[in-house]
Amino acid sequence: MKKLKKQLKRIYLNEKENEKDFIIERKEKQYKFPKLILIMRSELYRGMFLSVTNDKSNKVTDNSKLSNKSFQILEYWIYSNQIKDGIKITQQMIDEIKIGIDYFQLNQTNPNLFDLLIKKFKNQNQNSKKKDCLIF
């Protein structure tokens, strides 16, 4: 399992761009993914790629209405089962990502993305309150 996570992160970090054979097109940017990862992580794409059709396209337009930040959180989680360090989670992002999880029909394995977001959001708020209570 560790080896698979390492390989997925390597792909995410663009070390093997040629392995990314599918594009999710958004207004601002194109996101490249290996079909295999999308098949593993998303019921939506599993159905799309494994259905018997003559459609051989390698691109789809994302109509999820997610902000770029929320989409990038989903993208990183799809590859790593983690939330990227340094991301400040807001309630709006949590709401958007909950919709995105449903939209993309993401397989919620452990750790569950929504649970990770809530935990990180609570930790941020607790740390923020602690800083506010400090007297200088």
TrEMBL record:
Residues covered by the BTB domain: 20-83
Organism: Anaeramoeba ignava (Anaerobic marine amoeba)
Record-linked Pfam families: BTB
Cross-referenced SUPFAM superfamilies: POZ domain
PROSITE patterns for the chain: BTB
Lineage per the UniProt record: Eukaryota, Metamonada, Anaeramoebidae, Anaeramoeba
Protein name, per record: Kelch repeat and btb domain-containing protein
Gene3D superfamilies in UniProt: Potassium Channel Kv1.1, Chain A
